[in-house]
Design a protein that fits this description.
alpha+beta; single chain; globular
Amino acid sequence: MMAVLAPTDMNLSKSGADVPTTHATERANDAGTVMSFMWYLERSPLYDTEKPYSMRYEPDDGVPQSNFQKVRRPIEVKSMREPGAGPFRLDECGFQLIQLHSSLKPDDFWDQERVQSVYIQEVKEALKKELGAKYVHVLDYALRKRHESFPISTGEEYVYDQPTALAHIDFTRDEGERITKILFGDRAGEVLKGRWQAVNIWKPIRGPLNDWPLGLCDGRTLDFEKDTVSSDVVFDDFVTENLQIYHNPASEWYYLPDHNTWEALIFKSADSDPSAAVPGCCHSGFFNPKSDKSELRQSLDCRCFVFYADLDEYPPIVADVTQPHLQTL
């Protein structure tokens, strides 16, 4: 069974008016910078008394499927390749670029068995090597193939997951600890004695990719006390908690133009260390007015839990966090 990453309110546009034109957005301050837009949660008095939530199913009791009030804001997205940009380090800004030369060919990524038996192991080894982790667990992953109409809704369910289009962070710190306790059961305390991080790893399946690339916000430019709010993502048989983002004009966004298949972006979704420079990395896909759309985005992102406790042997995984929707890998 395919492990599917929980979607994040992807189909935000209902008409062409919501898609920026090249004339409106292609002002560039330098060769790599683009002007685009990003969807955020609106700063509404509603959330002073009501926690944001989004259901991934149609409720039958008259309850609204979501109480999200979204707002679109223009953003400047800078190139990570520009001279003088960076350095970008996971423990400094919340994200970084690594090389991951997978043995899989592009068509192999649509074979779930190949992804789980080969690529997932490559991800684990890459993160252990890059971060010095003792143990890596891949919680879930998502294969995305953009439909040519996205983000304009077709009115029908897409065959493949589409890019996200709403700024967010995948987990709260409390949710990361809860997931760890579920994964390791009675022996979770051994693992929680050391630091842990929730880390995403994202790469194109075909490249170089410019169509609806991943945008990453420098965590040092986001006020986590004022600009984030915890939110419930509700399925019909489980619930998880992430962070929704309020717009901050001081935020600095980056992307990787001409993103090659051997280049992987890793970014933090939660961190057990309260003294960490940034708790997580706000991210989302975004419309790139410089893309010629000759190759619609195909990408793969994995959500991983990275552990640093110095144990002789890690306890076994005893439970799947989001069964039956996801498969433990």
